[in-house]
Amino acid sequence: MPAVSALTISARDTGSRARAGVLKTSHGEVRTPAFVPLATKATVKGMLPPEVAALGYDIVLGNTFHLFLDPGHERIARLGGLHGFMGWRGPIVTDSGGFQVFSMGHGTVADEIKGRTPHGANRQGGIVAIEEEGVRFRSYLDGSERFMAPETSMEIQAALGSDLALVFDECTPLNVPRDYTARSTERTHRWLQRCLDWHAGHGPEGQLVFGIVQGGVFEDLRIESAQAVAASACDGIAIGGSLGADKDEMHTVVGWTTAQLPEERPRHLLGIGEIDDLVRGVELGIDTFDCAMPTRLGRHGVAIVPEPDARWRIELAKGRFKASAEPILEGCSWPACAGGYSRAYLRHLLKSGELLAQRLVTLHNLRFVSDVMEALWGGIAEGRLAETAAAIRRGSSPSVLLARSASG
Amino acid sequence: MPAVSALTISARDTGSRARAGVLKTSHGEVRTPAFVPLATKATVKGMLPPEVAALGYDIVLGNTFHLFLDPGHERIARLGGLHGFMGWRGPIVTDSGGFQVFSMGHGTVADEIKGRTPHGANRQGGIVAIEEEGVRFRSYLDGSERFMAPETSMEIQAALGSDLALVFDECTPLNVPRDYTARSTERTHRWLQRCLDWHAGHGPEGQLVFGIVQGGVFEDLRIESAQAVAASACDGIAIGGSLGADKDEMHTVVGWTTAQLPEERPRHLLGIGEIDDLVRGVELGIDTFDCAMPTRLGRHGVAIVPEPDARWRIELAKGRFKASAEPILEGCSWPACAGGYSRAYLRHLLKSGELLAQRLVTLHNLRFVSDVMEALWGGIAEGRLAETAAAIRRGSSPSVLLARSASG
Predict the structure, then answer these.
(1) A53 membership: H or E segment, kind and range
(2) Spatial separation of the C-alpha atoms in residues A93 and A164, rounded to whole Å
(3) Across the interface, which of B46, B323, B339 has its CB nearest the CB of A359?
(4) CB-based contacts of A346: which residues, under 8 Å, 6+ apart?
């Protein structure tokens, strides 16, 4: 266990495991609970770094796997590390590359985890061999054979200079047998130790290392894994792998896990970010979340709105918006809504393939999620999380909740 | 001739026909000489309206033809006109649709005018018939037959509510016989009168109407056309059509034309905007220019830089930039250069197909052109245009010229 926790907890909810606090990193503080926008290829898609900060985000997530393949961690190191390269002055977390390496290899099975086509699955990429030493795979860019071991992942993350590094793990998909999951999870624990050993000798000063809990959808394996990761010297704990076939199972699996985790260490939930999942995750004691959802939906013209029955989504390209003079979200004070851009205008831009549509909807989505996190934070800090969570689940607009909170 | 000119000339160059002034419109003033960024489909590609204004632009150009086909001028009128629809508070000029209608029909010949593939030429669009009454064509969107007469164009522009409307003209390509050009130019003059007649009865109050000089590359036809347009009641005069096979011929044709134009009316040069052409155009007495160049190059990762030998362009996707820590333009204080984004980073974004690259390079290009126009304005106002023009042609950075001007 680390001597000093990077997380300072300032408030706890009495009715759940939720907590609010501050995570200290080499590039500044992260107010938690927090959502972490993806900067997969060293950019939050379509957004300038100062805009991301202005949207209320303290930290972004860069992708070890993609940046390793192109333009390469050594080049990024020479260009000022990931902070200097992309011009983001705040904290950065890098994932380990494990998820991407394995989602390429497991092919369509991995789709189930994330509900999408994995990068390169149908192209020239793919796993060559999973060995105790590490993983051999082919680059989706040029088909060349590459090797990634736990030490490689940590070396790449050291070169990138991230503030939070994640250990290299095997990300098992949903439909693998318990036996495979058990053996894989044990290997992930051995890889955790190798990552920590490498980092102790070579890691950049101040870089925090997060272990990753695996164990699939099996309660005993999740508990064992949570305990094994908690027993290591990692600075924080991430929850990864397959979390179940539906939201209920996912919430159950996350609940099994957080029940086993030491209170004082920060907890990250990997790849989860739908509005109801953020609310439940916070109640289950998660501090930080990352997810492609707000930016990916934004690129496809899907806006996040306070409509639970519509999964908090509207597709602005639909014909029903062609004459709509409404903004995306009435009462929102941010440029995408308050700038006078109607749903009809956004639909026109989307139909015309205009970049501005992607920018405006992404901007809106990131702001919506940021407001949800701030509302949840306020709920914990002010001792009324149950009320805030219920309001969000009912479809209250987070900006309205924030305005109400600010006014007393 | 209009009773009162919309243009107030505040300074004239003694060594050329250049002048600086202010063009008054219903939505505010345009400082001239000015470049007009394209907002073809009701958006300056990738930019928010307040960003375009902050870049130093007073006016943008919307496209009558594209907006007529989709989403339709009537819908735009119901959504607050083009100003309300796109959220741009300043002046807007709309072209007449003539160029687009004819560039579809003349097919590859029209490529010569603009050096590009015309919209829809290889798709289902195209001209059905050019008649005295107007033009029948097929929509490039759905193949449906549409009709545009001079009155239609003015009616669309009235519905869009632009501040400056352009009359409907036939835009003749380079390689048509003199005889065709002569007959076409005469018809354009008859269409000019029909546009002015329609506008006098139905045009929105305060909307200015610009006539268009045609005449191809034939000196006598250009002179005749310039005189015919000047003799009409139009508020301003645009120069259109084929201007020649190369820059020298284009400058000659523009020179023939401006020599014939009344001093007091504003002059617009259609579709021209390369750096050397802006400098020469200002010297020849042009007040405003529009061109897709800065935004189109930006979308393709081509940055405008003060390098005359490279046609003021660098392609940031080239391999030679892969390790370059330099910004696009050293000494430029705007976000694309001063934000810490290296050429290597921009190349990475371009190779990865990231939206942010298009945004940053477009931002830079629009700023560069805006700085060029401001430097030229300063040159006229301060009586040293020859020096400023020579410095730009030699490859001085316009931001450096502006800084020097401000400090001395």
Answers:
(1) helix A49-54
(2) 4
(3) B46
(4) A301, A303, A316, A321, A328, A357, A360, A361
Give yes or no: B287 in active site.
no
Reading the block at residue B294, the tokens are 């800065």
Binned at pLDDT 50, 70 and 90, residue B390 comes out as very high
Lookup: tokens for B203: 């045009």
Nearest Cβ partner of B355 from A78, A348, A358?
A: A358
Does the distance separating the beta carbons of A359 and B48 come in below 8 Å? yes
Beta strands in B95-213 (DSSP E): 126-130, 135-138, 145-148, 164-166, 208-213
8 Å CB contact of B355 and A352:
no
* φ, ψ (nearest 5 deg) of residue A184: -65, -40
C-alpha B397/C-alpha B401 separation (Å) is 6
Question: What interhelical angle do A398-406 and A385-394 show, nearest 10?
Answer: 150
Q: Rounded CA gap, B35 and B288, in Å?
A: 6
Q: Is the CB of A339 inside 8 Å of chain B's CB atoms? A: yes
Separation CA A122–CA B131 (nearest Å): 54
CB-CB: which of B43, B75, B322 is closest to A356? B43
ipTM of model over 0.85: yes
pLDDT in tens, B141-174: 888 999 999 999 999 999 999 999 999 999 888 8
Residue A315's DSSP bridge partners are A302
Taking the Cβ of residue B72 and every Cβ of chain A, the question of whether any pair is shorter than 8 Å is answered with: no
- Cα(A223)–Cα(A215) distance, integer angstroms: 8
DSSP state of A231: H
Query: In this complex, do A87 and B355 lie within 8 Å of one another by their Cβ atoms?
Result: no
Q: Which helix (H) or strand (E) holds B152?
A: helix B150-160
**Spatial CB neighbours of B293, under 8 Å, sequence gap ≥ 6:** B273, B274, B365
What is the rounded (10 degree) CA torsion for A38, A40, A42, A43?
Answer: -50
Q: What phi and psi, each to the nearest 5 degrees, are found at residue B268?
A: -120, 135
What is the value of pTM for the model shown? 0.94
Ranges of beta strands (E only) in A243-379 are: 267-269, 288-291, 302-304, 313-315
Taking contacts as CB-CB distances below 8 angstroms, the residues of chain B near A85 are: 342, 344-345, 348
Mean pLDDT computed over every residue of chain B: 93
Query: What confidence tens digit (pLDDT) does each residue in A8-46 have?
Result: 999 999 999 999 999 999 999 999 999 999 999 999 999
Q: Which one of the listed residues B13, B58, B95, B287 is annotated catalytic? A: B95
**A318 at the B interface (CB within 8 A)?**
no
Please check whether residue A327 touches B, CB under 8 A.
no
- Disruptive mutation site among B75, B79, B350 for chain A (greatest number of A CBs within 10 Å): B79
Long-range contacts, B338-341 (Cβ 8 Å, 24+): B339/A48, B339/A49, B339/A50, B339/A87, B340/A84, B340/A87, B341/A87
Give CA–CA dist B349/B354, Å, rounded: 5
Between chains, do B70 and A46 touch, taking CB under 8 Å as contact? no
Are B48 and A344 a contacting pair at CB < 8 A?
A: no
Q: Give the side-chain half-sphere CA count within 13 A for B314.
A: 17
Instruction: Give the mutation candidate from B324, B345, B350, B363 for the A interface (greatest A CB count, under 10 A).
Output: B345
Q: Count of A–B CB contacts within 8 Å? A: 114
Partner residue opposite A342 with nearest CB, options B79, B335, B340? B79
Angle B199-B205-B209 (CA atoms, 0-180°, nearest 5)?
45
Q: For residues A82 and A162, is the Cβ–Cβ distance under 8 A?
A: yes
What is the rounded distance in angstroms from the CA atom of residue B106 to the CA atom of residue B101?
A: 9
CB contact A78 to B (< 8 Å)? yes
Helix (H, G, I), strand (E, B) or coil at B157: helix
